[in-house]
Amino acid sequence: MKQVNFLYNKGNRKHSNANLAILWQFTQIWMDIMQTNQTNTWLLAIWVLLLSLMITACTNGRPNDEAAIDATRALIETYVAGTQTANALPQDTPTARPTRTELPTWTPKPAATAELVAPTAIQHLVVPVGPGLAWSEIADTFSGNTAAEKRAPEGDLYTSQQLLERPFNQAMAYVPQVDIRGAELAKDNQFIYVTINLDQVVQQFDASYGVELDVDADGRGDYLVWAVQPDSDLWTIDKVFIYTDTNHDVGGANVLASDAPNGGDGFDGLLFSASQFDDPDLAWARINPDRGGSIQFAFKDSFIEGGASFFWRVWADAGLQNPAAFYYHDFYEFSHAGSPLADSEAYPLGTVFALDNTCRMPFQIANDGFEPGLCGNGGMLPTSTPAPDVSLTKLPVIPTIKLTP
Predict the structure, then answer these.
(1) Which of 68, 194, 255, 353 could form a disulfide with 297 if both were Cys (CB 3.0 to 4.6 A apart)?
(2) What tens digit of pLDDT does each residue of 63-76 get?
(3) 125-157 pLDDT tens trace
(4) CA 195 to chain CA centroid, nearest Å
């Protein structure tokens, strides 16, 4: 292999030794300066550059005399002095680099729109007037008389009859807004009206009220007309819903007895709301303007299979308020649900509280008196007959009397 290392070339051995001596002197000079002066690290780059130049000079010819060394020292000291002057000037405080958690969050701007358009108001064709005389009525247990004793007098048959008399919270404080005294059903040419009479109604009270319809007499609700927190004495469709049971699992395996904890999905289908409807006039609710202690519903029979023929009952619920968990006694075991009856082993109320419901009454439907959940003690109940129409009462005919002179 050909030797190309110039430091050990025979002809230049003498000069190489001198060159190395000079480089060693430069190195000592630089180290002395670095120890005496605090400089920026970029001076190291100057040293590397000068070292390269010196190596090149030393390997290409004879070195200069001591004056060259002194000149180099002066040049280096000049660079160091300039650096010290620069370091003495005020420096900007460096900004800390933000960590990932300090990085700003980018939020995209919404797409620009040419014009904001107000939602179209619902155009109603028919608005309820009000119920006339009742065609069908339901009576219910009243707990107000025993409220001070923190108990219901009777009427709560949780495990056997789907009957709930629980107008108390979990501390057994009385909740009059859900204590049903009774209910009435009426009808005109446009609507079916149901009035739920309560011990007390307070506007903005957090409670839901409902009318349950059973069209095939099997004790299972097929439809539920539901109003959430009624707050006006004007008819409205806001917060009014019509639910249906699409898979017929309301009531569980045993329609009246508790199947807990094996409930299904309750009323799982939505037929009507203020934002989902085919007929905007299908269902309405309000606080009764003539009696503040009652909630009123008005709904058409067009959504009911078989028309205006069904068994009906009502609900008042300030507790769970969940139609998808109907019936509650199929979802919550008695020991967890509690009881409003002071002599019950499950007293006081637990997970199922602050609600009331009623037994069922027939409306324009045949019955034998033994349908599941029917009011009474057996025996056929009247199918409800229309109240007399007093709007067309005829005036008596006044005989004509001829006057003779």
Answers:
(1) 194
(2) 445 665 565 566 55
(3) 999 999 999 999 999 999 999 999 999 999 999
(4) 31
Asked whether residue 248 is domain-assigned, the answer is: yes
Q: What angle do CA 310, 377, 193 make, to 5 degrees?
A: 30
Rg (CA), the chain: 47
Residues 166 and 269 in one domain: yes
User: In residues, how long is the chain?
Assistant: 405
- Which tens digit of pLDDT belongs to each residue from 211-230? 999 999 999 999 999 999 99
Contacts of 299 (CB under 8 A, 6+ apart): 191, 192, 211, 225, 242, 282, 283, 284
- Among 50, 84, 118, give the residue marking a domain's end: 84
Backbone angle region of 97, left / alpha / beta, with phi > 0 → left and psi within -120 to 50 → alpha: beta
- Domain extent at residue 33: 6-84
Phi, psi of 305 (to 5 degrees): -65, 120
Q: How many CB atoms lie within 10 A of CB 188?
A: 15
Give how many domains the chain has, as a whole number: 2
